[in-house]
């Protein structure tokens, strides 16, 4: 917190989260995928159709600090996104007592990015399918359904260019390193 003042606020929010969140009676649906695969469009449409609640990762209460933590060393950045998953789980637990919950990214994105950055070499060098790195954290609220959206790589690049937004570090790495994208 001395080096990154925002860390204290994130940790304060995390401490307020119940230790084991329980899902309410409504379904929790997660949409995963790279940038420009249609998550925003699909999640909004599903939210409207189901008269649900739309949540995003990282959650709104900490998303303003994303750029701060994205410039930090990998372990600190990873801790920020992990904390975000637990804060989001607390929001999911509360919202799912009132309506269906639609989520734009969750633990899967954090895990996929971590695995891809920690693995060097080819896709064959990834941990085997049954490895514990792929196991859902026991203390994190589980969704009812997870959907992975994909799109042709050329179409995805076209969509990103059409947005005219500045590339994130992750997006630049995905574009420059096809091996990283495969992992």
UniProtKB/TrEMBL annotation:
<dbReference type="GO" id="GO:0005524">
    <property type="term" value="F:ATP binding"/>
</dbReference>
<dbReference type="GO" id="GO:0006227">
    <property type="term" value="P:dUDP biosynthetic process"/>
</dbReference>
<keyword id="KW-0496">Mitochondrion</keyword>
<dbReference type="InterPro" id="IPR014505">
    <property type="entry name" value="UMP-CMP_kinase_2"/>
</dbReference>
<comment type="similarity">
    <text>Belongs to the thymidylate kinase family.</text>
</comment>
<protein>
    <recommendedName>
        <fullName>UMP-CMP kinase 2, mitochondrial</fullName>
        <ecNumber>2.7.4.14</ecNumber>
    </recommendedName>
</protein>
<keyword id="KW-0067">ATP-binding</keyword>
<dbReference type="GO" id="GO:0006233">
    <property type="term" value="P:dTDP biosynthetic process"/>
</dbReference>
<dbReference type="GO" id="GO:0004550">
    <property type="term" value="F:nucleoside diphosphate kinase activity"/>
</dbReference>
<dbReference type="Pfam" id="PF02223">
    <property type="entry name" value="Thymidylate_kin"/>
</dbReference>
<keyword id="KW-0418">Kinase</keyword>
<dbReference type="InterPro" id="IPR039430">
    <property type="entry name" value="Thymidylate_kin-like_dom"/>
</dbReference>
<dbReference type="GO" id="GO:0006235">
    <property type="term" value="P:dTTP biosynthetic process"/>
</dbReference>
<dbReference type="GO" id="GO:0050145">
    <property type="term" value="F:nucleoside monophosphate kinase activity"/>
</dbReference>
<dbReference type="InterPro" id="IPR027417">
    <property type="entry name" value="P-loop_NTPase"/>
</dbReference>
<keyword id="KW-0175">Coiled coil</keyword>
<keyword id="KW-0809">Transit peptide</keyword>
<keyword id="KW-0547">Nucleotide-binding</keyword>
<feature type="domain" description="Thymidylate kinase-like">
    <location>
        <begin position="31"/>
        <end position="175"/>
    </location>
</feature>
<keyword id="KW-0808">Transferase</keyword>
<dbReference type="GO" id="GO:0004798">
    <property type="term" value="F:dTMP kinase activity"/>
</dbReference>
<keyword id="KW-0665">Pyrimidine biosynthesis</keyword>
<dbReference type="GO" id="GO:0005739">
    <property type="term" value="C:mitochondrion"/>
</dbReference>
